[in-house]
Design brief:
It contains 11 helices and no strands. The protein is mainly α. The protein has one domain. Helix 1 runs parallel beside helix 9 and helix 2 packs across helix 9.
């Protein structure tokens, strides 16, 4: 069984990781401002679904393929990078096509989606990021107790559950913050800046994923 001390240490590690601004933060904030609350929560739960999958796979040792196989890691890295660059470029391009206060087709489609649309975007963003799998592969073995596959599976799910709980709490804070400032951030000029900054951050993260170490 995982000890309370081990759970506390793991919670501290993933808590600091959760608070660090990154692709998830940018995506949640942007969705909360431009879309419905249900879509924003869809993104959150999609991201956390990916976290659960990575946690379970990491506990079972499946993600070792990503660190042991250069080809597998590279393929997933390029797929994730292409998706992020496409998503970020799409956001920036929509702001360049926008005229006045009217929303363009891309913006309407992006802000008008519901829960499952947000869930798909969040899940894809997380699952196509091999660095999440590499993180779990590096960290989880230190906390998973000895035992068979069933014990490893249970431990992985429990540890991922801690990460998910912290992620959902922090995401709730981000959504509340974004919704509080929604009227200001939805002004055409502020909206363009928000989309350009968010799109640039996402595309830059994708480029870094493709060409970084």
């Amino acid at each position: 069984m995982i000890t309370a001390s081990a759970l506390g240490s793991f919670a501290l590690i993933v808590g600091l990781l959760t608070l660090t601004p990154g692709i998830d933060t940018a995506l949640i904030l942007r969705t909360a401002v431009t879309g419905r609350s249900t879509r924003a929560w869809g993104v959150v739960l999609g991201i956390q679904t990916g976290t659960l999958v990575w946690g379970v796979l990491g506990a079972l040792g499946v993600t070792a393929v990503l660190t042991a196989s250069h080809l597998a890691y590279t393929a997933l890295r390029w797929a994730g990078a292409a998706y992020l660059v496409w998503m970020g470029a799409r956001m920036v391009w929509a702001t360049l096509r926008r005229r006045g206060g009217d929303a363009g087709p891309a913006e309407e489609a992006d802000s008008g989606g519901g829960f499952w649309s947000g869930w798909r975007k969040g899940a894809l963003t997380n699952l196509l990021n091999p660095k999440v799998g590499a993180f779990y592969m590096a960290v989880l073995p230190q906390f998973v107790p000895e035992g068979g596959a069933a014990a490893h599976l249970l431990a992985g799910a429990l540890l991922a559950g801690v990460h998910i709980a912290l992620g959902v709490i922090w995401s709730g804070v981000l959504i509340l913050f974004a919704r509080t400032l929604r009227d200001t951030l939805r002004r055409p000029s502020a909206r363009r800046v928000l989309d350009r900054v968010t799109g640039t951050v996402i595309a830059a993260f994708g480029a870094r994923l493709a060409f970084g170490e």
